[in-house]
Amino acid sequence: MKSTLPVGVIPDDSGPERQTHARLLAVFVGVAALAVALASTVIHNLSDTSHAGQLADLASVTLFLVALACYLLADQPARSVRRIRSLVRMGTTFTVLALLLLAGVSVLGVLLPSMDRSVSVQFSDITGRVQLEYCPALPSSFDAMVKPIDLARSSTLLPVWVSSRDCGNPSYVNGVWLYLDRSTITVADSGER
Question: Which of left, alpha, beta for 162 (phi over 0: left; psi -120 to 50: alpha)?
Fold first, then answer.
């Protein structure tokens, strides 16, 4: 009767090839994780003020790092073919989960409107109050709404939504968007709507 070794101990010529494959996957996943994490963080910082986007970013980066760890562990010497396959499979699973999470958050970010941020605006220079023709009752300090992406930009003009009460013009019953010169105003964050 011939005795056989357990499957995990049987030498396999594909072991070094599997390790090379795992090494290449580790490099690919590492670069992809960095690129996706940076892109997602930039997108969410510009368009999403909620904590859900930040938590999704953190979760996806964590999944990518776990996948990277699985690939790197598979690349270690003296691993059986079965262990290498298992680690590569786990790494692939975590990578797919991270990509699905980021794709889901991105789709929701496109489908759901971004929340406007409530800010306090104060004119630092009276000559900057060129909007008096539109809003004659506009005080030197007032509350307004801005889009997070506009607030993050460095353009000369900042679009702000002013309520009809602050505007004082009966033609703008639902409020009005004013484009204020950033050099003549001070903007302070006063929370989310």
Answer: beta
How many structural domains compose the chain? 2
Residue 143 contacts residue 119 (beta carbons within 8 Å): yes
pLDDT band (50, 70, 90) for residue 40 = low
Looking at the domain assignment, is residue 2 inside a domain? no
Task: Say yes or no: 144 and 52 in one domain.
Answer: no
What residue numbers bound the domain in which 164 lies? Answer: 117-192
Cα separation, 91 vs 94, in Å, equals 5
pTM across the whole model: 0.51
CB 112 within 8 A of CB 49: no
Task: Quote the Cα angle for 181-136-144, to 5°.
Answer: 50
How big is the CA angle at 156 (ends 155 and 160), to the nearest 5 degrees?
85
**25 plus 98 within the same structural domain:** yes
**pLDDT over 90, % of the chain:** 4
| Residues 182 and 135 grouped into a single domain | yes
